Amino acid sequence: MSTVILHRRPAKDLKIDYAKELNAEQFVVVENGDGHVLVLAGAGSGKTRTIVYRVAWLLEHGISPDRILLVTFTNKAAREMLTRIQERLGGVPSPIWGGTFHHVANRILRRYADRVGRTPSFSILDQEDSRSLINACIADLNIDTKQRRFPTANVLKNLISFSRNTRQDIADIAVEKLPNAHAIVDQVVGVARRYAERKAKQNLMDFDDLLVLMVELLANHADVRTKLQEQFQYVLVDEFQDTNSLQGELVRNLASKHGNLLVVGDDSQSIYAFRGADISNILQFPKTFPETKQFRLESNYRSTPQILKLANAVIRHNLEQFPKELHAMRPAGDLPQLIPCRDDGQEATFIAQRILELQTNGTAFREMAVLVRAISHTQALEFELAQRDIPYIVRGGLRFFERAHIKDVLAYVKFIANPADEVAWLRATTLHVGVGPKTAGELFNRVQSLGSDTDLKTINFVSLVDKRGMKGIAMFQAVIRKMLDTGVMDEKKEKVVYLPQELIRVVATGEYIDYLRTQYPDADERLQDLEQLALFASKYKSLSSFLSDVSLQEAFSVGAVSSENDDAIVLSTIHQAKGLEWEAVFVPRLVEGSFPNGRATEERNGIEEERRLFYVATTRAKTHLALSYPLVINPTGAMLLTRPSRFLDEIPSNALDRVELQEEGLGNWDGSERIIQI
DNA sequence: AGAGTGGGCCTTTTT
DNA sequence: GGCCCACTCT
After folding, report:
1. Active-site option among A21, A31, A48, A657
2. Pick from A620, A527, A536: which is nearest to A577 by CA?
3. Would strands A368-372 and A582-587 be described as parallel, antiparallel, or unpaired?
4. Is A471 known to be catalytic?
5. How far apart are CA A168 and CA A155, in angstroms?
6. Who wins on pLDDT, A219 or A183?
7. Catalytic pick from A26, A47, A278, A429?
8. Nucleotides on strand C with an atom closer than 7 A to protein CB?
9. How far apart are the C-alpha atoms of A326 and A311, rounded to whole Å?
10. What's the CA gap between A227 and A42, in Å, rounded?
């Protein structure tokens, strides 16, 4: 292990007075962040602040920005941190390597794609793309999906993904997770293999490939490994509790030359086990690196003591965790409320009224959030908010880049970027009348067999299909030709380059408009989305960086594109609320089956993860917290009686303010309840 | 045979 | 509200 000696400037040169701007716990970390460092940071303890100041400290001590790797859970978090650092230091000359694991891996893999069996123009599959490719593989292998209740592409995708992220054998995972596994395990393995082959052949990567191939790149190519290990003098990882085996391996590897690996996390907030997150990364860290310095951030600046008391009371029921105690630094506030409601409609009414009440008392809409276990739980509330003209933004669920029309247009663009991409081809061609999966697949194979060096412009697609598909394919080809016409030679006269914005324009101003109008009643709104897409694309000069960002940025959700600064309530899944905070937080639908989620309940350690989710949700609140549940829900038509969430039983009764809505009798609570007219 | 359409059914979380 | 499947049309 090599030791790095910093060239420390005298303290008077520093722009930031670290000791003054940080509390003692945080300052110790910033000052002693060299070597292997584990920071156990409770909710609201200034984790982000600590990382920001640590990076600023490194920069102020002469570390070059490009030698710092800052891995965060979302790209948004990385952007925010880098912005804050720049503000504090008045600009940073060259950029820091910051972003998600997938983002960083993508950036490196573009450079070394040939080492992992791809070319630099590889495309990235999102979950829907993977699903359709897996479906194609199932069809390829002539598997009878009906006879033995073969798992759907979605289930298979999750199995394959889980096995790769946890680095376990797909057959073992299948046996563990599928009821009838033994009869079909060979077929499952076959699909997984075929899927991998087709991705390689078509120059595609799914999200997991970014991590797997990155780890393989380091393992198998000593020159690349040496270069990267040399480069990254300091590696910092946020939300370490949610990293999986591959990600743990990746940072350990990258940091091994200089030995400066600082990880920050909170085991109580680990909520991604379903995607292979391995809590032992954080629990075993001190054992892996015996010289690890351990620090704790236990002062909570975010929430009132009442809110913390509630959160702590519930999380205490989890057995597997680091012992820790969060101290509230804020003065006392109101008790969190518990509101039983007749049904989800009344629950929505209550939340809407309470939102207006809070706003009247001076809390801005943007300072309020409704956090749900599943995005579908916002339905009744969305209806209510719309009726009352309360502005809201939905985070979670379908993202902007996953909407059908956006993906349609991007399919054309992806095909231009990577003509071997069959997924993109299938999507774009089958939009046309008379062209289905069969015609599209056969045509694709014919086009590919003409040779990869054949110019797309000169191939006549139409001559390769029979009558029925001709008209549609002719239209498709016309669009492709127009797109190819926008290409220009790059400065070095080596290859043709395309501007993403121009490619989008060609598609979105052509026959696709007619398709939209016949297909969707809200075609006009969708056309506006396409304009937003073109606007977003105008920031990019390179096709591959545009397409990478489209795939890897969690980005804005639907509707949030232009209203980033608007004053609106946030409706979000708890997963997407990670790391964020609001003055007022509502957690509705606290019934068994919804939260804790019914399926999670059956999984191993599922309840503990649900409880951590509850902990994350409640600790987002600064001042006001309202928990509610409907006594009846109406999912498909049949009324369903509910049972209140078990987490509510874990809260001491003196930690809650039980509210009775006075619209009709809601059962007999004791006389201590407050009554609210609704 | 393959494309298109209408009815029944379920709905976790994400890079 | 979206997805899968079965049925009908070309």
Report:
1. A48
2. A620
3. parallel
4. no
5. 17
6. A219
7. A47
8. 1, 4-6
9. 10
10. 35
